[in-house]
Amino acid sequence: MQESNVDLLIIGAGPSGLMCANALAGRGFNVRVVDKRAVGVVAGQADGIQPRTHEILQSYGLMERLLREGVEIHRNAFYNPGPSGGIERIERTAAISQPTARYPFTMCRHQGGTENFFIDAMRPKGLEVERSTVPTVLELSADSGSSELRDPAAHPVKFQVVLQHLDRTENDREVVHAKFVLGTDGAHSWVRKAMGIKMDGGHTEFVWGVVDFFPDTDFPDIRARTVIHSVHGSILVVPREGDLVRLYVQLSDVDLKLVDKQTNRVDKGQASPEKLIETAAKILQPYYLRAFGDVQWWTVYIIGQRVAEKFSVEDRILIAGDACHTHSPKAGQGMNASMGDTHNLAWKLAYVLRGWADMSLLRTYEAERRKFAQDLIEFDKVWSTLFSGKPRTAQHDDGVTHEATLGAFRKFGGFSSGIGIRYATSIIVDNKHQDCASKLIVGERMIPHVFIHTADAKPVNIHDLLPADTRFKIVVFVADVTTDVGAVPLRGLAERLTAESSFLRRFGHGNHLDVFDILCITSAERDKVDYTDVPEVFRSHWSKVLVDDVDYAGRSGGGGFATYGIDPKSGAIVVVRPDGYVGTVAPLDRVEDIDAYFSGFML
Ligand SMILES: Cc1cc2nc3c(=O)[nH]c(=O)nc-3n(C[C@H](O)[C@H](O)[C@H](O)COP(=O)(O)OP(=O)(O)OC[C@H]3O[C@@H](n4cnc5c(N)ncnc54)[C@H](O)[C@@H]3O)c2cc1C
Fold first, then answer.
1. What tens digit of pLDDT does each residue of 107-150 get?
2. Which of 36, 213, 238, 339 for mutating ligand 1's site (highest number of atoms within 8 Å of CB)?
3. I need a labelling partner for 223 at 20 to 30 A (CA). Which of 175, 275, 277, 429 fits?
4. What pLDDT, on the 0 to 100 scale, is given for residue 257?
């Protein structure tokens, strides 16, 4: 059999596997991505993309394409049974309730379309998905804790994957010796099962149908994300690309016989898209609903709410995405949670593979993302029950009220948009000096804000200066550098940062700019300061020096120190992780605490 060595073998090229592959493509790693499908997803499956995922896609330069190809959803609408037996609108709200979201709307793009963003971005960097390929053997038989397993540069001898190429008749098998394996092979993950990782949780009794079609209707909220409770059942309307619409239709108790009680799988053969649209039309009364032309995609499924008991084996085999967690799709979390997992993991793998960080850094992946998955299941339990429960009527006084649905929507807005995700304190989340940037919560993603380039006065969102390029960003906020109030502490900080003992020198691996990007933001006035006014270490390029002032048009910029809760006289150092989350903050004269932060996991 043919044999090969790789740094990372990714099994499964869905959103989760592709996010990781693209993050590491072209960065000097030997990565392979295999998938059993002969072709990618062409329609349907996951579609909702949430505000935090927009920001993540932007950090890889992919958001413009989503804006071009996807549909923006700005409004939610809620309907309940009305007095005449049909439905009536109770309320309209903004689709997103998070004021700091850079893109304050959700979007839809079908899963295959989103996967293509990554596939097309990877291709010029020399990475393609190898299709019609499955693993048949996955062996990790080295002793736990052996020095071989603890050395990230080693291809452990007793660690191998046998791949089978389904499209070949000869030489269809090969042995791959991988330093790391990532199983992103979906809800029925082969990798997870091969490693004997159990799923905690179970299945609900809610059976739902999903149908994508072009509607002919007089329903006025067909272009809003609309939750409808009626005496005939519930549906969720999701506007899709162009004039396409997706309906999630709750199937009646009669349809529960479609479920195989042994496997918890639904017999799709007994359902049909026509029946789903017919059920939806009944729920939508007094409005009419028919389909124009052929249905684009449809499916029927039962909701499982489960989380894997662990996300890795010996830090060598990791699983992510649906392989680790499944939940209902109605809050539009599937793709988001899955891409969020591997966005969190990719830079950690990069640091370990480069020998820059200890293997223990990988443990923070499971700690951060398993907690998130557990919270997701708890949220999903509340959300699914509100969705699938009967509405409160005179006959059902214990039914679901509109207030409960709306209350949950507001309560969980931070979580479901992804904006409010906060990682707990760990070796990479240190909130010791939280007070010096009181509104920039350590463990949460950096808040977007517009600052002005000192050199050319161009307004720029700070997120665009924090690309997911695997570097830590050291953002120094300082008082007016044209006066001693700012200039003196900044000079002191420059001396401290360039000293031998500084983290820049100790963990810079010969060229600190490979590991750390440094930005400097001053409270000086736009037209009174030059980028050359700051010491050299803060201006590796003119674009790294910014002011917290308004632009010439007076439309953007200014108020950044206040937004972040940083005293303009004292300033602060903000460490942003490569995935855009605030790792730690410290006063300008506490560089030793930043040194200690990096000493906790860097080599
Ligand atoms: C039929 C179906 C319908 C869905 N409908 C919805 C929906 O309506 N709304 C919603 O939000 N979410 C839906 N989902 C879930 C959504 O697709 C996932 O939450 C999301 O795509 C998770 O991304 P992932 O990369 O973790 O897994 P997936 O997207 O499942 O990707 C896994 C990849 O691994 C590959 N693979 C699987 N086994 C192997 C193997 N042994 N060897 C090699 N490759 C393998 C698969 O071909 C696939 O490309 C649906 C999923 C499925 C399967």
1. 999 999 999 999 999 999 999 999 999 999 998 877 777 888 88
2. 36
3. 275
4. 65
Given the residues 7, 47, 322, 548, the one annotated as active site: 47
- Which pLDDT belongs to residue 470? 97
Residue 592 and residue 515: Cα distance in Å, rounded?
Answer: 18
Structure tokens at 39: 């072709």
3-class state of residue 174 by DSSP? strand
* Six-digit token string for 99: 């004021």
Collect the ranges in the chain with pLDDT lower than 70: 157, 204-205, 252-265, 389, 391-394
Q: Provide CB contacts within 8 A for 465, sequence distance 6+.
A: 473, 517, 519, 543, 544
CA 134 to ligand 1: nearest atom: 42
Picking from 481, 460, 574, the residue whose alpha carbon sits closest to that of residue 532 is 481
pLDDT tens-digit profile of 399-428?
Answer: 777 777 777 777 778 888 999 999 999 999
- Per-residue pLDDT tens digits for 215-242: 999 999 999 999 999 988 889 999 999 9
Backbone angles phi, psi at 409, to 5 degrees: -60, -45
Active site residue 68: no
Catalytic residue check, 423? no
Ligand 1 centroid to Cα of residue 595, in Å, is 41
**CB 576, CB 477: distance < 8 Å:** no
Euclidean distance between CA atoms 416 and 409, whole angstroms: 9
Instruction: Give the DSSP letter of residue 536.
Output: G
Q: What is the pLDDT of residue 94?
A: 95
What is the end-to-end Cα distance of the chain in Å, rounded? 37
In whole angstroms, give the CA distance from residue 476 to residue 574: 6
Q: Rounded to whole angstroms, how far apart are CA atoms 182 and 11?
A: 6
Contact status, residue 50 vs residue 238, Cβ threshold 8 Å: no
The runs of H, that is alpha helices, within 354-445 are 363-388, 402-411, 413-417
List, in order, residues 6 or more apart from 435 with CB less than 8 Å away: none
Name the phi and psi angles at 328, rounded to 5: -70, 155
Which domains, and CATH codes, for the chain? 2-69+109-199+308-367 (3.50.50.60), 434-600 (3.40.30.20)
Contact call for residues 237 and 228 (beta carbons, < 8 A): yes
Asked if residues 47 and 240 have their Cβ atoms less than 8 Å apart, the reply is yes
Marked catalytic residue, from 225, 240, 471, 539: 240
Ligand 1 center–CA 303 separation, angstroms: 14
Ligand 1 nearest atom to the CA of residue 335, by list position: 20
Which CB contacts under 8 angstroms, 24+ apart, belong to 168-174?
Answer: 171/1, 171/2, 173/1, 173/2, 173/136, 174/1, 174/2, 174/3, 174/4
Quote the CA–CA distance of 391 and 368 in Å, as a whole number.
36
Give the model's pLDDT for residue 139. 87
**pTM for this predicted structure:** 0.95
Look at residue 264 in the predicted model and tell me its pLDDT.
Answer: 64
- Given the structure tokens 């499908």, which residue do they identify? 37
Residues forming a β-bridge with 165? 133
Helices (H), 138-270: 147-150, 190-194
Closest C-alpha among 448, 474, 444, 472 to residue 461: 448
H or E stretch covering 16:
helix 15-24
CA-nearest of 22, 185, 42, 24 to 118 is 22
The reply to whether 131 belongs to the active site is no
- Ligand 1: which residue has its CA nearest to atom 30? 186
